[in-house]
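When time allows, look over one protein, given below as sequence and tokens. The question is which stretches look regular and which look disordered:
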Amino acid sequence: MRKHILIVLGLILLVIAAGVAYLGWPDTAELSVDQVAGKLPKITDPRIQTIPTVKVAKVVGWQNGAMPTPAAGLAVKPFATGLDHPRWMYRLPNGDVLVAESNSPPREGGGITGWVMKVLIGRAGAGVPSANRITLLRDANGDGVAEMKSVFMTGLNSPFGMTLLDGQLYIGNTDALVRVPYVDGQTKITAKPELVIKLNPGGNHWARNVITAADGKTLYVGVGSSSNIAENGMDTEKYRANILQVWPKDKNWRIYAAGLRNPNGMAINPKSGGLWTVVNERDMLGSDLAPDYLTQVEFGDNFGWPWYYWGGYPDTRVEPKNPALQQYAKRPDYALGPHVAALGLTFSADAKLGAKFANGAFVGEHGSWNRKPVSGYTVVYIPFGDTGFPAANAKPVDVLSGFLNKDGDAQGRPVGVITDKTGGLLVADDVGNAIWRVSAGG
């Protein structure tokens, strides 16, 4: 009798072990990144994960003078080095460049989930405390290297986006939009920031971008979701996964667009004046879903998060359901591929990188953690057509790659992208602690 019981127990343990192995085994991509990119990406059936696929490139930094690899016809060199986790940039009217040296505020939560998150963040090079600083870089002689690096502003709370409007510099802290007076050419600000509006902090997606609208009167502020798919309830997502429109004079605001899991990079299309954003989509649907995207955003748009992705595909994990939203969930304009972590965005209007890069958008892809093999870890260019939208059949074109070495380790990770005063492309590398400058030639 005991023998039979032991056999049964052994079989039960074997089944449990097999189940754990099945759930824990990494989901491997069946499609290339390009197949899940473009205007008409291939959308496969979801492969829902209880235990996520975890594959993040270990950060080793730039060794022995190594640098990223530019596309053919382009060249790259350091614009500034020795920074502390540079995430975002803003070009001032005189050509000076502001850099937000910033990171996530201290994260709450313990247990297994908190431990796993801490390990992942550390491996990805994001385990350092936030410098909470904005640094000014000046290239006075125009040689493509910032010979001046000085502390511009301190005492901030995980700062990210920056923009000027009517003599005020607006800064997106993780918990508030603030402003300080600014005079052209100023190299240091000591004024206490004035609160414009509060923003809900906490959870994931801490970075708050801010840009000036085409009307020259209002601002757009991107506020990412607190979670992957609202698994902690929609109460924790109040005024999150939104782009807000702010009237700074009156300190009023409204939700401009919703259902955007993490609308980080934002930019005004110079041809149409329309607002565009890149968005990080959800995790744990498998290595082929869901595509991050680039899209135009209009007032009242809802892109479906957390209930729907890519214009109406339901995420069956989300409770409670919201069937009424499905027919209104807007389909994005352009897929960038799964899990690439699209963060940076700028249009090419001011760039002088040759005809191939004259009409389109540059996107900084920070790199995946939930895909096998990894995706992103590059800066790409999206060609646009005469309509003001991505060109038909266009796929992302690598502009700056080589952030992963031959062993698959991360030498750097690109985030923000802007053009400088002479038409070069600047790329913030938050774990390489550098700003790279891409120029024509090479």
Observations:
- Residues 226 and 232 are 9 Å apart (CA to CA).
- The two ends are 79 Å apart (CA to CA).
- The helical segments are 2-24, 111-123.
- Residues 14-24 have pLDDT under 50 and may be disordered.
